[in-house]
Amino acid sequence: MTHALPLPADLVTPCLVVDRDVLERNLVAMADRARDRGVALRPHAKTHKCLEIARRQVALGAVGLTVATVGEAEVFADAGFSDLFIAYPLWAAGPRGRGLRALAERVSLRVGADSSEGVELLAGALVGTPAEVVVEVDSGHHRTGVDPERAGDIAVAAQRLGLPVAGVFTFPGHSYGPGQVRPAAADEGQALQQAEAALRRAGVDAGLRSGGSTPTAALVEPAGLNEIRPGVYAFNDAQQVELGSANWDSVALTAAATVVSRHGTSIVLDAGGKVLGADRSAWATGNGRLPDHPEARVTALSEHHATVTFPAGAVLPELGSTVRVAPNHVCAAVNLADVLLVTANGAVVGQWAVAARGRNA
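Structure (tokenized):
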């Protein structure tokens, strides 16, 4: 069981609710961790997409923000955030290239790249601006990024086309699995060191070594990384709890849902996939979890229904009662919401717009 205060009365469910005090503890803890380890913190704003949270992260010492898309970057730039890293190998053709250039002319901008073809498009969009390229390397997730030994080739291609190179980055996404956090953290540090060495051999002097997921942030070593980009830590979610990267008392965002049906050992809630998101890793024990009923599992999701199964003999929540649901992947849930209700001491104290909602391009 968690020690969270009851949900505010009279909520119109389903809705996403943020406990302001838990959020603040999470933000402070990560800022302190980065400071203690001697690494820069550049949190990934795709998790929360909220200006209010981004402002607090910067106030706590973040050097800037990480985003995933040009659209996200535009939202935060419009709000006055002046140091942005689009940690994605953008294909900067057509309108996207023009949007990228407009961004580079008003903020300090870094952009990811993992191919010479991608670099050529970036050069067409960005040459003549102060924007910098960061070479993405694969540290074991096998999604995007080049082999660390090839990082120098991409960096040289960028410089020949007139693009400054800031360094290298990676995402240790293979940390998202039981027992994988420590090996992934080691892979991440080793890959970034190898990539930096490859840049030096190619004659490129660029010192950024950027990495860090929420699961691996606790294991970061400055010898491997000098910047971390965790995102989920602000809210945490069911995945982080099942990975051991968080506990229920550090889950700041949940969906408030009403029990609309009961049968046998199951209840049905009014928060389905259109609220919680549909992500479920193969190792996850459900489609979401109930922090106040940790023995229960969300066993099925429809668009507007969540079926929650309890062990035999458990006391089920009453019809019409409101329960908290932690999404498996909080980033996906937030992107489905217009606003987040902010609570403190069991009462709603405000609401924050999901300002970058849907800015997926």
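Residues 167 and 207 are 5 Å apart (CA to CA). The longest strand covers residues 253-263.
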